[in-house]
Amino acid sequence: MKTSEQFALNEWLSYYPENMTYEEVIALMREPDNSWSADEISVWQVVENFTLAQVADFIESTQSHFERVTAHKPAYKCNKCSSIVTTNKRFVSQDYFAFCRNCDEDMYQLEVKEVTA
Ligand SMILES: [Zn+2]
């Protein structure tokens, strides 16, 4: 199970079988017979007035939000050589913030610009 899936399940469920995959848990929650409860699944009290299918929706949006937030790596374009530089650091003015392998040097703020995907 991916970290994002684990995180999303733990955020909304107080219990689910450890041997099930994320997809299996979601599928179980969406079964029509399991509108309000499923044998092996418990939701946190805060969502107990929602159907399991609705909670499954919450789980899936939490999972995709987690993916988006953690997947974002800023990319910059080096103005000297035009190569794309990725970094985990956020752009901070007056900092060296990215190393361009092509130029073999740290690039300053004015030598790069953020590239949006
Ligand atoms: Zn460069």
Low-confidence stretches: none
Q: How would you state the average pLDDT, rounded? A: 85
Distinct small-molecule ligands in the complex: zinc ion
Element order: H for helix, E for strand = HEHEHEEEEE
> Major sheet: order of its strands?
4-3-7
**What is the percent of helical residues?**
25-40%
Rg is: 22 Å
Inertia-based shape: rod-shaped
Q: Please work out how many helical segments DSSP would assign.
A: 3
Strand residue percentage? 15-25%
Instruction: Characterize the largest beta sheet: strand count, sense, and whether it forms a barrel.
Output: 3 strands, antiparallel
**What is the first-to-last residue Cα distance?**
27 Å
Protein structure class:
alpha+beta
Number of strands: 7
Write a compact overview of the structure shown.
By secondary structure, the chain is an alpha+beta fold.
Give structural notes.
It is a single chain. The chain is 33% helix and 19% strand. It is built from three helices and seven strands. The protein has a three-stranded antiparallel β-sheet with strand order 4-3-7, with no helix packed on it. Helix 1 (3-12) packs across helix 3 (52-71). The structure holds zinc ion (ZN). Zinc ion binds next to loops.
Which keywords apply here?
three-stranded antiparallel sheet; 117 residues; 3 helices; rod-shaped; binds zinc ion; alpha+beta
